Amino acid sequence: MADGSHIEWTEATWNPIAGCSVVSPGCTNCYAMRRVAPRLAANPATPHYAGTVKPSKAGYVWTGKIGIASDEVFTKPLRWKRPRMIFVNSTSDLFHEDIPDDVIDRVFAVMALCPQHTFQVLTKRSKRMREYLTAFDDHGQGKRFAWANAVPLGEWPVSKHHALAFIHRDSTPEHRALYCAPEPAWPLPNVWLGVSAEDQARADERVPDLLATPASIRFVSAEPLLGPIDFETLCTGWEFIDALKGMRYHDAPEPYVGATETCAKLDWIIVGGESGPGARPMRPDWTRSIRDQCAGAGVPFFFKQWGEWLDADQLFDQIERSGSFIARNGERWRQNRPLNFEGAASSAIFSAIPSNTIATARPFIVSASIGPDVCSTALSTTPCRSARCRSDEDADHLATMGFFDRGGRKTL
After folding, report:
1. pTM score of the predicted model
2. Contact 293, 230 (CB under 8 A)
């Protein structure tokens, strides 16, 4: 857990739960499994990580053990006064099959008691998320009772009184008064729910569950992006869903053939390539396709990173080294000589290992939903004020919507 994060789309991480298990191809090189959990498992200050990973020939892997943190960790957001974007369980999955409902209740209780923060919950277990948040067909009343009845949280015990949550704001003997908080809105306005989808199969499986789940903001993290994804034509087996415009197209026997109806839609899509040893390349055309889908539907798009592999089109004057690349047709090319920057590599993804061979400025994104004159790192509509955006050298990036490399150069 950290007040501050290197993840570009959040500001802090909160990990009341540790441990996970591999569930799909996107988990293969999981950063939390390979790098974070092994370090924290050896740290006496974070005992709930003990036993969550084990060494193997492929590196550290999850054991499937789930660790629950102390009340001090559970209640940390309650003591953060300045509003933050908080990524929940960056080293676990809140809806993992081995996490009891009462533990999830405690997490939601804390989030409900912290309206100043925005919590970002990301899962690969979309079915359980949907089942958990739709267990009561009562506009969230049953879930609010469950959260209010969650076990005492350190110095912040929560109890239920009809539809209201009571918080012991001051537990000193002379001040035993309870503070009666208003009933939380439903769905919680400060909780964003998202699913990870690394390819079309996972998007078809998880995004419909997300759309069927009550949420104030619904987002998809397509990272690591391992294949193309068409968010406008998700297939559930008997219908197609346009998740960007919020439409369902039935493909079923009469009388449903051709019928359409509206549904919830996605509010935000993140795209990123894989990083670290053994990273799998992300093809630029996959990324461009998602960007264009978002632009057409007015859905905010966040390009996080190329990962270990970068588009070489705009990097020839920055990189002078040997390496391998993936042609746009997917063919891998390796040769122990410098690449011919004027020829063969002109339509390639260039291997960017190590990353210090390239300029180190942070990536910069133009929002696909709010036009080319505004930069966006999430759902913001605030004009970009960075020095790079104001410089004459990079002024032309405001003229055309696209992506920029780590040096601030346009790549897509």
Report:
1. 0.71
2. yes
